[in-house]
Amino acid sequence: MSTFKDLGLKSEIIQALTDLGYEKPTEIQEKAIPQVIASDQDLKAFAQTGTGKTAAFSLPILQKLDLDSNQVQAIILSPTRELAIQIARNIEEFSTHLKGFRVAAVYGGSDINGQIRSLNKGVQIVVGTPGRTVDLIKRRKLKLDSVKWLVLDEADEMLNMGFKDELDQVLQVTPDTKQTLLFSATFPKEVDRIARNYMNDPAQIDAGKRNSSTNNVSHEYYVVTDRNRYPALKRIADINPDIYGIIFCRTRRETQEVADKLIQDGYSADSLHGELSQAQRDMVMQKFRKKTLQILVATDVAARGLDVDSLTHVINYKLPDQVESYTHRSGRTGRANSTGISIAIVSPGERRKLGPIERIIGKKFVQMQVPDGKEICKKQLLKLVDKVNDFEVNESQISEYLPTIQEKLEGLDRDELIKRFVSIEFNSFLSYYENANDLNSTSKDRGRERETNGRQRNDENMSRFFINIGRKDKLNPARLIGLINEQNIAKNIEIGQIEILDTFSFFELDKNFESETLAAFTRDSDISFEGRGVNVEKTEKKRAGSGGGRKSSGGGRNHRGRSGDDEGRRSKPSGDSGSSKSFNKGGFGRDRNKGGRRGN
Ligand code: AMP
Question: Using alpha carbons only, how large is the chain's radius of gyration in Å?
Fold first, then answer.
């Protein structure tokens, strides 16, 4: 294995890499750096996220740049704003000892004038998203006629995201003499077209097997029914108290829902998806990078460009449609010489999706059993004990209280003391997992899954809404159902629990129609009931049982209460909260309200 010095890099760059703690080049760096330093030949590189490809293309460019010129000499295109910022930040780090060097990042969703001002200062490298780059070229604020290097990073993603025209436009305005470096994790037809049309006899390098996952990642799967998917996720988090991971969901809505539930259940989690504002996304990413957050629930696109090395887990809450997306997801762990685990939670029917993935990654998934309550409690307990062991006591602060404490605890021996302290921290955890069910799917579940034909009628599939009218407005369940039906939300929409209170009420509807429900009630701002304007808002699900306030030391939980999935409390129907008293007073039995009612 060579060193960065062996690759021919100059001392200023090597110094920066040493400052960053890079000890030896990664495979892609070992292959690409000497090639680009030695030759002007175009380059096609198969490389995945997390392989160190940013340094692979930017170090040789930094090595060869003319630092005396203020012209843009390299343009690097990347699919997302986050990735562009990340690349520019990395380049800044690599160039700390290069005097007179400047890089600028240009991307959409941010003030263009500020970006123009940084370009006007004179920069040698521009990192940009395709749309903003073309915009700046058209405004004649970005001149690419002196460009010697064009880098297309994650070319497949740029094309997936619909940047074909923008890529063509940038490729056309850059000089023919430039060297084009194309990095892509996959080479579908469209990427090949770019390579064929715009590259001259490119050299080809391949860091590892195409599309394969790194050797540092192990792949595991759990089989559970759809209903148990979320409880299983929680157990996976609980059995891994030090988890630092990304949970991938397929849609923005699912992402938000899973994140909301985890937050409500006391985990240190947040969501990242395209519906959040840029400022919100930046904040979440910052918290995650700093590890203030242990769990990030994200869509594939939003998680791109989030550059974090030390992820312990990637969890596929639902598998993606495309095998390539799986390799992208799993490639976010096991990065830069560390190891990681990529987990797929699959329903019995989704199991068949694993085979095609195994063929591409060249590795087998290992089936795991969703841990039972006992295993989790043991793990969490040991974690707590380790925490006690490692905890640094602030002697000066505590010393003045010690005599009083000693006096009060005088009658308790060591064993008794230990038991009590541990119980304070741990009892709610134990009771949560007491009687916890086996969540692993059996062959029977498969049959049942087929029978129920997808959507099951249970609380997991319902969203709960607040409505600002109640008994005082002469509302009763039948009239509420009538009012819901009048809004024509969807045919045969399923209505769940209804709770009529004095001045307001709650109802549950099929969560697949959550946005339609909100839209229906806001579409016509004149909806009124007994002379009162009607307002409907989404609200939290009712909690199953009490259970809040559990403080645990791990599993990504941040010392908050939790809401109820029905883990470990089968005897109590979920949705049995304190408000049921007034609910029953309303004269509509809870059990009769549960399930089976249909609108329209
Ligand atoms: P990239 O694939 O460029 O996004 O890099 C993935 C991560 O690996 C980044 O956080 C880099 O800082 C880190 N990295 C890249 N090359 C090395 C290296 N040679 N040694 C250690 N870390 C590296």
Answer: 29
pLDDT tens per residue, range 349-387: 898 889 888 877 878 899 999 998 888 888 888 888 888
| Residue 144 pLDDT greater than 50, yes or no | yes
Rounded to an integer, the average pLDDT of 287-301 is 91
Q: Tokens standing for 107?
A: 């991307």
Dihedral sign for Cα atoms in the order 523, 528, 533, 539: negative
How confident is the model at residue 390, as a pLDDT? Answer: 86
Structural domains in the chain, CATH included, are: 5-206 (3.40.50.300), 214-454 (3.40.50.300), 455-559 (3.30.70.330)
Q: Is the dihedral of CA 294, 300, 306, 312 positive or negative?
A: positive
| 54 CA: nearest ligand 1 atom | 3
> Ligand 1, from 30, 31, 76, 335: best to mutate by most atoms within 8 Å of Cβ?
335
Model confidence pLDDT, tens digit, residues 409-466: 988 998 998 888 888 877 767 777 877 788 887 766 655 554 444 334 456 678 899 9
* Cα separation, 561 vs 262, whole angstroms: 10
| 322 against 410, higher pLDDT | 410
Quote the CA–CA distance of 249 and 169 in Å, as a whole number.
34
Pocket test for ligand 1, best of 3, 19, 26, 31 (most atoms within 8 A of CB): 26
Query: Residue 307 C-alpha to ligand 1 middle, in angstroms?
Result: 9
Integer angstrom CA distances of residue 154 from 185, 209, 251: 7, 17, 22
**Contacts of 114 by beta carbon, 8 Å cutoff, 6+ apart:** none
Q: How far is the CA of 321 from the centre of ligand 1 (A)?
A: 28
Residue closest to 295 by CA, chosen among 348, 339, 249, 336? 249
Mean pLDDT of all residues belonging to the chain: 81
Closest atom of ligand 1 to CA, residue 309: 10
| Ligand 1 pocket, CB under 6 A | 22, 25-26, 29, 49-55, 307, 309, 335-336
Q: Give 164-191 pLDDT, tens digit per residue.
A: 899 999 998 999 999 999 998 877 788 8
> What gap in Å lies between CA 515 and CA 250, rounded to an integer?
17
User: Closest Cα to atom 12, ligand 1: which residue?
Assistant: 52
The number of the ligand 1 atom at minimal distance from the alpha carbon of 24 is 19
Would the pTM count as exceeding 0.85? no
- Which of 2, 13, 22, 91 most suits a substitution to test ligand 1, by most atoms within 8 Å of the C-beta? 22
Q: Give, in degrees to the nearest 5, the angle at Cα 459 between 458 and 465.
A: 135
